[in-house]
TrEMBL record, chain A:
Recorded GO CC terms: plasma membrane
Name recorded for this polypeptide: Protein-export membrane protein SecF
HAMAP family, sorted: SecF_B
Its membrane topology: Multi-pass membrane protein
GO biological process: intracellular protein transmembrane transport; protein targeting; protein transport by the Sec complex
Main location: membrane
Domain annotation Protein export membrane protein SecD/SecF C-terminal: ranges: 117-301
Pfam family, one: SecD_SecF_C
UniProtKB/TrEMBL annotation, chain B:
Source organism per UniProt: Novosphingobium resinovorum
Keyword RNA-binding: no
GO molecular function: protein-transporting ATPase activity
Transmembrane regions listed in the UniProt entry: 12-35, 370-391, 398-419, 425-445, 473-492, 498-522
Taxonomy of the source species: Bacteria, Pseudomonadati, Pseudomonadota, Alphaproteobacteria, Sphingomonadales
Signal peptide stretch: none
UniProt domain Protein export membrane protein SecD/SecF C-terminal: residue ranges: 353-517
Every SecDF P1 head subdomain domain range: 250-352
Name this polypeptide is given: Protein translocase subunit SecD
Predominant location: membrane
Its biological purpose: Part of the Sec protein translocase complex. Interacts with the SecYEG preprotein conducting channel. SecDF uses the proton motive force (PMF) to complete protein translocation after the ATP-dependent function of SecA.
Membrane found in the keyword field: yes
Record's keyword terms, sorted: Cell membrane, Membrane, Protein transport, Translocation, Transmembrane, Transmembrane helix, Transport
Any GO BP annotation: protein targeting
Subcellular location: Cell membrane
Length: 329, 536
């Protein structure tokens, strides 16, 4: 049987020749993401801003009466809901935010949820409530805080580990690449205004894991080559390392994409945003593994002798002692 | 790298076999096959987001505990000083600002008062710490402030009781396998699988069910009450909605000297024999019965208010002393609301009010759809992946798929079942990440073997080098992932935690299946077949 080879053996692509165009386009994309975040913001779900997300199926209708539903809930005086189709045409999700300045009333969210569901059931007899998420302002604040905390701590500790195992330049490079992955993904969420909830935080953590896998594989190869080819110029050595791991990077990313595309097309609607985030992140992560993680090392000044054993202070003392011809203790 | 002793082989395959076997009960839940009763069958539970059900996060107010504590102290102080020989008179009692202050009228009695109060300030614990700080300012003003250790202990006790009460109430509703646990300082996490409409549950949990009997002060003028002014020593108690007996929606009751209804042995819904309206019949225990008898015999002919959670249900007259230890709570009840009150009273009063600060309810249809679609997607995805890997790596791809995918999935399920972990939607994401990483480990190894072969190394040496050189990166990648998983577990909440748990389990099983098991298998094949070339 002839086996599939997506990437031919011994590729020799000069990735570093394009380091500047890629770097500049990266910076532009990252700046664009930040600008988007500030101008458009994120479409934060109820997990993070408090409020209700209620899923309703209209059992005896072909399509959901979106306008009538919006009006009915609007009349309750809590503000206008965002009603969106969700899955089949007769299924909708209804989102309410907590009114401004009600952080001190923890019971309000619950009261709202109760009022809205009873009103909807009364006004539309064929409405079936499929799910209620109701989060009070206090809890949503905590969820946002712990989410951001978990994400940043994870990135920090991972960088420290890479620093210990490799060199500080590698840690900085990985951190930069990870920040880029997260930033671009979040930027896409801002651009498309897809809902950003707690599940998306789990998605970001997942792609952090994948992306890191990639970077470590490339870095591991660079470390190996640095020990093996001491006299090779850095640019050439980095190109060699990326080329050697190229086949693996592509095969792995493709394997994961196969699973993700299946989940995206056939999976439950509830995790669509989640899967979309990871899929997007895989593209961004693969791109940054191939084009970003290596050149950064040159800019940060990794030298050919970074992994050559240096003489420790004690060794030096002993050597000097030997040279002076003194007796050994 | 390729030598395995027979002991190791048996040991490794043994572990894999046992853990795979443990996943069987979980897998059987997707079929119609049932294990015979009596066979111990640990299962992975599906989270509420998959199985459908309701999750409520309840929160208590710490300040309320403090306030109750101050009130309790005020009663103790009054009793203690009133019983002293000679009695010590106090005034200017205030419990504002989180502390209790009062003045002793006769300055010569300050020392005696201090002496009498000291026993009240001792902690109940063994640590010898005081629960209260006592000090005297301006000569005769006492300040009693609860210490933070005392408050912590009180809050902790209150929450423990609250969890028990919540459990009893939910059990009384007849729901299946509720999961009730304390979360952090003042929160209770309640998960009820299969519950579709949590309204009844919330109504039940929202009721503190603190029952009090207080004497009505008939002397209060209705005009004052309407303005919210109560006579000294009284408090204004509003009627519960729709239960007012006269024109006024409030009545004045004596603040002290009443009794609480926490000493009950039973509470049942029943009907009043005269007008056939729904009532709740309660039975006191010995001590409660005696107190109730004392209160009613001392106040024949007067009215007492039956107060539930600060709202008056009714204020009947005491026609005669009630000595039998049982009483009837009347009010404008329906049969349903009377039954609910009976449940609440039977399970005891909540020591604090609980508020719902978060609710997640997933209907059974949505959950079923999620499981069905998720399973189909996972099935199709896995098949496509297996095809891709086998097309790319041939024989080595088959090893990878059997070990890193099939055995790995079963082992993760097995471990989860043993630990009683719950599988949630984000948990499935953790699954996907783990499997991805496990496949990646094999991709790394196989690519490396290819590379070494193309450099002209011999078959056995290439395989050996492939495993050796790839292991370093696999090791580093898994360590970093476990760092991330640990942090997520420690700091994350809800979905993030569910994700982290699967990830942590998966990292361990992945390294075992994707590296150790495949290596053992490949080594066995190399020894038996002695291939001169690899189709890789």
């Amino acid at each position: 049987m002839k086996l599939l080879k997506l990437i031919p053996d011994n590729t020799n692509i000069h990735f570093l020749k394009w380091q500047w165009p890629f770097f500049i386009s990266n910076i532009v994309l990252m700046v664009a993401s930040v600008v988007l975040l500030f101008t458009h913001g994120l479409n934060l779900g109820v997990d993070f801003v408090g409020g209700q997300m209620i899923r309703v199926t209209f059992e005896r209708s072909a399509t959901a009466p979106v306008d009538a539903l919006t009006k009915t809930v609007d009349k309750l005086g809590y503000g206008e809901p965002v009603v969106q189709n969700f899955g089949k045409p007769n299924e909708v999700s209804l989102r309410m935010r907590l009114p401004e300045g009600t952080e001190a009333q923890p019971q309000l969210a619950d009261a709202m949820a109760q009022k809205i569901t009873t009103t909807v059931k009364q006004a539309f007899p064929d409405a079936r409530i499929d799910g209620v998420d109701s989060v009070s302002g206090k809890v949503s604040g905590e969820l946002l805080k712990t989410g951001v905390l978990a994400l940043s701590l994870a990135m920090l500790c991972i960088s420290i580990y890479i620093w210990v195992r490799f060199e500080w330049q590698f840690a900085a490079g990985a951190l930069f690449a990870l920040i880029q992955d997260i930033l671009l993904t979040v930027g896409m969420f801002s651009l498309t205004q897809m809902e950003f909830d707690l599940n998306i935080v789990a998605a970001l953590l997942t792609l952090l894991g994948y992306s890191l896998n990639d970077k470590i594989v490339v870095y591991d190869r660079i470390r190996e080559n640095l020990k093996k080819h001491r006299r090779m110029p850095m640019a050439e050595l980095l190109d060699l390392s990326v080329n050697e791991t190229l086949s693996r990077t592509v095969v792995t990313s493709l394997s994961i994409l196969i699973m993700l595309v299946a989940l995206l097309l056939l999976g439950p609607d509830v995790i669509f945003g989640f899967t979309a985030a990871i899929t997007l992140g895989i593209f961004i992560g693969t791109y940054s593994s191939i084009f970003m993680s290596a050149p950064i090392l040159i800019w940060l000044g990794v030298k050919s002798d970074s992994f050559v054993q240096t003489e420790s202070a004690i060794d030096r003392q002993e050597r000097l002692a030997r040279e002076r011809g003194q007796p050994q203790p | 790298m390729l030598e395995f002793s027979i002991f190791k082989k048996v040991w490794y395959w043994g572990i894999a076999a046992v853990l795979c076997l443990l996943s069987v009960p979980t897998l059987l839940t997707f079929t119609n096959i049932h294990l015979p009763a009596g066979v111990p069958a640990p299962k992975v539970n599906l989270g509420l987001d998959l199985a459908g059900g309701s999750r409520l996060l309840l929160e208590a107010d710490r300040n309320q505990v403090v306030q109750q504590r101050l009130q309790g102290m005020e009663e103790s102080v009054r009793t203690k000083l009133g019983a002293a020989e000679p009695a010590i008179g106090i005034g200017d009692v205030s419990s504002r600002g989180g502390r209790l202050t009062f003045t002793v009228r006769d300055t010569s009695q300050v020392d005696a008062a201090r002496e009498a109060l000291l026993p009240l300030t001792n902690g109940a614990g063994l640590t010898g710490q005081r629960d209260w700080d006592i000090s005297v300012v301006n000569g005769n003003q006492f300040v009693l402030a609860p210490t933070s250790a005392g408050i912590d202990l009180e809050v902790s006790n209150a929450m423990e009781t609250a969890v028990e009460v919540v459990r009893k109430r939910i059990d009384a509703l007849g729901t299946k396998e509720p999961d009730i646990r304390r979360l952090g300082g003042t929160r209770i996490d309640v998960q009820v699988p299969g519950l579709q409409d949590p309204a009844a549950l919330k109504a039940l949990l929202g009721q503190t069910a603190k029952l009090e009997f207080k004497m009505v002060d008939e002397t209060a003028s209705p005009a004052d009450l309407a303005q919210g002014i109560a006579p000294p020593g009284d408090e204004i108690a509003p009627y519960a909605e729709g239960m007012a007996e006269g024109p006024s929606p409030v009545i004045a009751v004596k603040r002290l000297g009443g009794i609480t209804g926490d000493q009950l042995t039973n509470a049942k819904q029943g009907f009043d024999q005269q007008n056939n309206r729904a009532v709740v019949n309660i039975t006191f225990n010995q001590q409660g019965g005696e107190k109730f008898a004392a209160l009613t015999s001392a106040n024949v002919g007067k009215r007492f208010a039956i107060i539930l959670d600060g709202k008056v249900l009714s204020a009947p007259s005491i026609n005669e002393a009630i000595l039998g230890g049982s009483a009837q709570i009347s009010g404008s009840f329906t049969t349903k609301s009377a039954t609910q009150l009976a449940i609440a009273l039977r399970s005891g009063a909540l020591p604090v009010d609980l508020k719902v600060v978060e609710e997640r309810t997933v209907g059974p249809d949505l959950g079923a759809e999620a499981i069905h679609k998720g399973a189909v997607a996972m099935g199709v995805g896995t098949l496509a992946l297996v095809l891709f890997i086998i097309l790319t790596y041939g024989r080595f791809g088959i090893y990878a798929c059997i070990c890193a995918l099939a055995i790995n999935i079963l082992m993760i399920l097995g471990v989860m079942a043993v630990f009683g972990t719950t599988l949630t939607l984000p948990g499935i994401a953790g699954f996907v990440l783990t499997l991805g990483a496990a496949v990646d480990a094999n991709v790394l190894i196989n690519e490396r073997i290819r590379e070494e072969r193309s450099k002209g190394r011999r078959v056995v040496q290439s395989v050996e080098l492939g495993y050796k050189e790839a292991s370093r990166a696999i090791f580093d990648a898994n360590i970093t992932n476990s760092i991330a998983a640990l942090l997520m577990f420690a700091f994350g909440s809800g979905p993030v935690r569910g994700f982290a748990v699967v990830l942590m389990i998966g990292i361990v099983t992945s390294v075992f299946t994707a590296v150790t098991l495949t290596r053992m298998w490949v080594a066995g094949w190399l020894r038996k077949a002695r291939p001169s070339d690899l189709n890789l």
